[in-house]
C-alpha cells in the first residue's frame, strides 16, 4: 500500500473507497487496482454507482472514506484541477464542451494548460506557434480537422463525443477516464469510436464506463463489475462473461447485450 | 483594414470636432466616454466571463474617491502629474475588486449577482458615515492642478485627457481578448466545470477577471472624479450599477464594442431628452424592455447580423419594408409619448391645483403649445390613430421583412454546409 510515488506498477489504486450521500451509501468499500498501461472497463447496471466512482476519482465529489492513489500518490481530497495536473483527465457522460467556442479553441484551452500558460495575459494566443501546432495535431488525431473553425455546439453528436475525447488528450494526462464514450451512437459510429479510443489510449492507462459489452470485448484488457456500490468481480472480459455471479447480477437481466 | 479605417475616422472626429462644440456637448462627450469605458469594463465580467454583477458601482465609486484623495494630496503639494491621476482609480478598483472578487466569485449565477449587489450596498450605506474616506453625505471635492504647461482648467483639456485614457483602456481590453487568458475567460462562461477538469483553478481565474474588470471600472470612476472635481456616496447607488447593466445589454453583451454602443445611445438620449421631459427615465426603461423583448442580442448584435449577411442583402427589396417599419415605429413612439406626457400632466401637482380652481371639473390642459380638452374625443384621437396606424405599418412591414431574411439566412446556411 505504501508504494513510492512515481514507480508504482499501478496507475490508480482505490482502497476502501466509500461514498454516501447523506445516509445513503452509493459506493461501499471499493478496492480496485488499475495497472499502468491497461485498458480497464467498469460495467454494471444503472444506478450501480459507476459515474459516482468516476466523480470520486476525478475529484468532483469528496470521498466519505478510503483512499485513492494516482501513480502511488494519494489524491484524496484534492480539487479537480490539481488531480488533472497530476496526470488524470476525464470525459463526461453528457457532452461537456465549450459550446460557443470553436472546436479548435475547445482543444487549445487544454493544450495551454498543459504548457502551464494558464494565466497568460501578455501575448496574443494566435501567435503561440507551438500551442497551435499541438492543437492541430490533436484535431487531426480525433478527426475533426475539417471542423476546426465551427462552433463546438454545431457539431453532430458523435463529433462532440470525439471532441470530448480530444479534450481529455490535450492536457497530456497518462490516465484517462472515459464515461460511456459510445452511449447513444449508431453501430457504425461506435465502431469508429472504438478505433479512435484504441489509438489515442496507446501507451496510456484507460479506465472507462461502458454499457456495450461488444465495446468492452474489443477494447479492454480487464473488466470490473460494479453492483450496488460493490465490486463483484474483476477479470478478463471472457472470464467475466462466463462468471455465474455476474450473469445473475447483471448480464442475465439484460440478456440482449 | 475593414475595422481600422472606420476606427481611424471616428478617432479623428473625436479629436477634431469637440473644440467647435459648446460646453454642454463637451460635457456630454466626457460623460459618454466615461460611460463607454465603464460599460466595457463591466462587460468583461458580464459578457465575456458570464458573471452578471449588479454592484459594479462599488468599483466605479471607489476609483472616483481614491482619485479625489490623490487630487487633495496634489493640492497640498504632492508632485504627481495630473494626467496620471486615473492610476489612483485603477489601483483602488484593483485592490477592492480583488478582495470583493475572492468572495463574490465563490458563487455563480444568481448568488454571484446577489453578493455583488450586497457589496455595493455595503459601500452605499457605509459611505455617508465615513467622514474621512467618503466625506460624509456631502462627499469630497478637490481641484485639478496644472501640470507641465497644461492648466486643466477648461473642459476641453479634461475631454482630451478622458479621451486618451478611454482609448488606451479600450485598446488594452481588446488586446486582452486575444490572450490565452482572454480565451479562458470565454471558456469560463461556457462551461466552468470543464475548465476545472482541464487543470485550471477556475476560482482563481474568476478572481483575476473580476479584478481586471474592477480595475478598469475604477479608471472610469477616476475620470469622472477628474471631470467633476467632486464625488459623494450617490456614486455607490444601485442606480449607477443598474445603468451600466442597461448600457451593456441594450448595446449587446456578446459583441466587444456593444456596451460602448449602449453607453453612447443612452448618454446622448439622457443629454437630449432629459431637457425636454421629466419622463425621460421612463422612456429609457421602455427602450430597455423593448430591446430585451424584440432584439435581445442588443443594438450591436443587430448591426453585426446585418454586416455578416451584407453581401446577400438585396437592399432594393428590403429598403421599402424597413422604411415602413421605421414609419410605423415612429408613429407608435409618437402615440406612446403623447399618452405618457398626458398622464404626467393629468396626474401632476399643477393640474391638481387647476382642477380644484375649476371647481372639481376637468379643465383643458396645455401640451406642446396647444390646449387639449381631457374629455374631448379630439384630444384622444391623435394617439389612437398614431398607435393603430403605426401598429398596422409594423405588422405589414414584419410580414414583408421576415420572408426576405429567411431567404438570406437560408442561403447562408446552405453555403455553410457545402
Automatic annotation (TrEMBL), chain A:
<dbReference type="InterPro" id="IPR051120">
    <property type="entry name" value="ABC_AA/LPS_Transport"/>
</dbReference>
<dbReference type="InterPro" id="IPR003593">
    <property type="entry name" value="AAA+_ATPase"/>
</dbReference>
<dbReference type="InterPro" id="IPR032823">
    <property type="entry name" value="BCA_ABC_TP_C"/>
</dbReference>
<protein>
    <submittedName>
        <fullName>ABC transporter ATP-binding protein</fullName>
    </submittedName>
</protein>
<keyword id="KW-0067">ATP-binding</keyword>
<dbReference type="InterPro" id="IPR027417">
    <property type="entry name" value="P-loop_NTPase"/>
</dbReference>
<feature type="domain" description="ABC transporter">
    <location>
        <begin position="12"/>
        <end position="253"/>
    </location>
</feature>
<keyword id="KW-0813">Transport</keyword>
<dbReference type="GO" id="GO:0005886">
    <property type="term" value="C:plasma membrane"/>
</dbReference>
<dbReference type="Pfam" id="PF12399">
    <property type="entry name" value="BCA_ABC_TP_C"/>
</dbReference>
<dbReference type="Pfam" id="PF00005">
    <property type="entry name" value="ABC_tran"/>
</dbReference>
<dbReference type="GO" id="GO:0016887">
    <property type="term" value="F:ATP hydrolysis activity"/>
</dbReference>
<keyword id="KW-0547">Nucleotide-binding</keyword>
<dbReference type="GO" id="GO:0005524">
    <property type="term" value="F:ATP binding"/>
</dbReference>
<dbReference type="InterPro" id="IPR003439">
    <property type="entry name" value="ABC_transporter-like_ATP-bd"/>
</dbReference>
Automatic annotation (TrEMBL), chain B:
<keyword id="KW-1133">Transmembrane helix</keyword>
<feature type="transmembrane region" description="Helical">
    <location>
        <begin position="280"/>
        <end position="303"/>
    </location>
</feature>
<keyword id="KW-0812">Transmembrane</keyword>
<keyword id="KW-0472">Membrane</keyword>
<feature type="transmembrane region" description="Helical">
    <location>
        <begin position="110"/>
        <end position="127"/>
    </location>
</feature>
<feature type="transmembrane region" description="Helical">
    <location>
        <begin position="147"/>
        <end position="176"/>
    </location>
</feature>
<feature type="transmembrane region" description="Helical">
    <location>
        <begin position="246"/>
        <end position="273"/>
    </location>
</feature>
<dbReference type="InterPro" id="IPR001851">
    <property type="entry name" value="ABC_transp_permease"/>
</dbReference>
<dbReference type="InterPro" id="IPR043428">
    <property type="entry name" value="LivM-like"/>
</dbReference>
<dbReference type="GO" id="GO:0015658">
    <property type="term" value="F:branched-chain amino acid transmembrane transporter activity"/>
</dbReference>
<feature type="transmembrane region" description="Helical">
    <location>
        <begin position="84"/>
        <end position="103"/>
    </location>
</feature>
<protein>
    <submittedName>
        <fullName>Branched-chain amino acid ABC transporter permease</fullName>
    </submittedName>
</protein>
<keyword id="KW-1003">Cell membrane</keyword>
<feature type="transmembrane region" description="Helical">
    <location>
        <begin position="323"/>
        <end position="347"/>
    </location>
</feature>
<dbReference type="Pfam" id="PF02653">
    <property type="entry name" value="BPD_transp_2"/>
</dbReference>
<feature type="transmembrane region" description="Helical">
    <location>
        <begin position="52"/>
        <end position="72"/>
    </location>
</feature>
<dbReference type="GO" id="GO:0005886">
    <property type="term" value="C:plasma membrane"/>
</dbReference>
<feature type="transmembrane region" description="Helical">
    <location>
        <begin position="204"/>
        <end position="226"/>
    </location>
</feature>
<feature type="transmembrane region" description="Helical">
    <location>
        <begin position="26"/>
        <end position="45"/>
    </location>
</feature>
Amino acid at each position: 500500500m505504501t508504494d513510492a510515488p512515481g514507480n508504482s506498477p499501478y496507475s490508480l489504486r482505490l482502497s476502501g473507497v466509500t461514498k454516501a450521500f447523506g445516509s445513503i451509501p452509493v459506493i461501499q468499500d471499493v478496492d480496485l487496482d488499475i495497472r499502468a498501461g491497461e485498458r480497464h472497463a467498469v460495467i454494471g447496471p444503472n444506478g450501480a454507482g459507476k459515474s459516482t466512482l468516476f466523480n470520486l476519482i476525478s475529484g468532483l465529489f469528496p470521498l466519505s472514506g478510503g483512499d485513492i492513489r494516482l501513480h502511488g500518490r494519494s489524491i484524496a481530497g484534492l480539487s479537480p484541477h490539481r488531480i488533472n495536473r497530476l496526470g488524470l483527465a476525464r470525459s463526461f457522460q453528457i457532452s461537456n464542451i465549450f459550446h460557443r467556442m470553436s472546436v479548435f479553441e475547445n482543444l487549445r484551452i487544454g493544450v495551454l494548460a498543459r504548457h502551464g500558460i494558464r494565466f497568460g495575459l501578455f501575448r496574443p494566443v494566435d501567435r503561440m506557434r507551438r500551442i497551435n501546432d499541438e492543437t492541430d495535431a490533436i484535431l487531426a488525431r480525433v478527426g475533426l480537422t475539417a471542423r476546426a473553425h465551427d462552433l463546438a455546439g454545431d457539431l453532430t453528436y458523435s463529433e462532440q463525443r470525439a471532441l470530448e475525447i480530444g479534450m481529455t488528450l490535450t492536457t497530456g494526462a497518462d490516465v484517462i477516464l472515459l464515461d460511456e464514450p459510445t452511449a447513444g451512437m449508431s453501430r457504425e459510429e461506435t465502431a469508429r469510436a472504438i478505433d479512435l479510443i484504441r489509438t489515442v489510449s496507446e501507451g496510456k492507462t484507460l479506465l472507462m464506463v461502458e454499457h456495450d459489452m461488444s465495446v468492452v470485448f474489443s477494447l479492454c484488457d480487464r473488466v470490473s463489475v460494479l453492483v450496488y456500490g460493490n465490486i463483484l468481480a474483476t477479470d478478463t472480459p471472457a472470464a467475466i462473461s462466463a462468471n455465474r455471479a455476474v450473469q445473475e447480477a447483471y448480464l442475465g437481466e439484460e440478456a440482449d447485450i | 483594414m475593414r475595422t481600422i479605417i472606420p476606427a481611424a475616422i471616428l478617432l479623428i472626429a473625436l479629436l477634431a470636432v469637440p473644440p467647435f462644440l459648446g460646453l454642454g456637448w463637451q460635457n456630454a462627450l466626457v460623460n459618454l466616454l466615461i460611460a463607454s469605458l465603464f460599460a466595457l469594463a463591466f462587460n468583461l465580467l458580464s459578457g465575456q466571463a458570464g458573471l452578471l454583477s449588479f454592484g459594479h458601482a462599488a468599483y466605479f465609486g471607489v476609483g472616483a474617491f481614491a482619485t479625489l484623495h490623490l487630487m487633495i494630496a496634489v493640492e497640498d503639494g504632492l508632485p504627481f502629474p495630473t494626467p496620471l491621476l486615473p492610476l489612483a482609480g485603477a489601483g483602488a478598483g484593483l485592490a477592492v475588486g480583488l478582495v470583493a472578487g475572492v468572495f463574490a466569485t465563490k458563487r455563480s449565477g444568481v448568488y454571484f449577482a446577489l453578493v455583488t449587489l450586497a457589496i455595493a450596498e455595503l459601500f452605499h450605506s457605509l459611505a455617508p458615515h465615513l467622514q474621512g474616506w467618503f466625506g460624509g453625505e456631502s462627499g469630497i471635492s478637490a481641484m485639478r492642478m496644472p501640470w507641465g504647461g497644461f492648466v486643466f482648467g477648461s473642459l476641453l483639456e479634461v475631454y482630451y485627457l478622458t479621451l486618451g485614457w478611454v482609448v488606451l483602456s479600450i485598446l488594452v481590453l481588446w488586446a486582452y481578448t486575444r490572450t490565452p487568458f482572454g480565451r479562458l475567460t470565454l471558456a469560463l462562461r461556457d462551461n466552468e466545470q470543464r475548465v476545472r477538469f482541464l487543470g485550471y483553478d477556475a476560482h482563481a481565474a474568476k478572481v483575476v477577471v473580476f479584478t481586471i474588470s474592477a480595475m478598469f471600472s475604477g479608471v472610469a470612476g477616476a475620470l469622472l472624479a477628474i471631470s467633476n472635481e467632486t464625488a459623494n456616496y450617490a456614486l455607490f447607488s444601485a442606480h449607477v450599477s443598474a445603468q451600466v447593466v442597461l448600457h451593456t445589454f441594450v448595446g449587446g453583451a456578446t459583441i466587444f464594442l456593444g456596451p460602448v454602443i449602449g453607453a453612447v445611445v443612452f448618454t446622448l438620449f439622457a443629454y437630449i431628452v432629459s431637457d425636454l421631459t421629466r419622463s425621460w427615465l421612463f422612456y429609457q426603461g421602455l427602450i430597455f424592455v423593448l430591446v430585451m423583448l424584440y432584439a435581445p442580442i442588443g443594438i450591436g448584435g443587430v448591426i453585426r447580423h446585418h454586416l455578416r449577411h451584407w453581401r446577400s442583402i438585396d437592399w432594393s427589396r428590403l429598403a421599402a419594408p424597413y422604411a415602413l417599419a421605421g414609419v410605423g415605429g415612429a408613429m407608435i413612439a409618437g402615440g406612446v409619448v403623447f399618452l405618457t406626457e398626458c398622464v404626467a400632466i393629468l396626474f401632476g401637482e399643477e393640474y391638481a391645483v387647476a382642477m380644484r380652481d375649476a371647481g372639481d371639473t376637468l379643465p383643458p390642459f396645455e401640451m406642446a403649445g396647444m390646449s387639449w380638452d381631457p374629455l374631448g374625443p379630439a384630444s384622444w384621437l391623435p394617439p389612437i390613430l398614431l398607435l393603430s396606424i403605426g401598429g398596422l405599418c409594423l405588422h405589414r412591414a414584419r410580414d414583408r421583412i421576415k420572408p426576405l431574411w429567411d431567404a438570406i439566412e437560408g442561403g447562408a446556411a446552405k453555403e455553410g454546409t457545402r
